Amino acid sequence: MKVQTEAVSFKADQKLIDFVEQKLQKMEKYFDRIIEAKVTLKLENSGQVKDKIAELTISVPGDTLFVSESAKTFESSIDSAASTMRRQLIRYKDRLRRKSA
Question: Checking CA distances to 9, which of 41, 54, 83, 101 falls within 20 to 30 Å?
Answer without folding.
Answer: 83
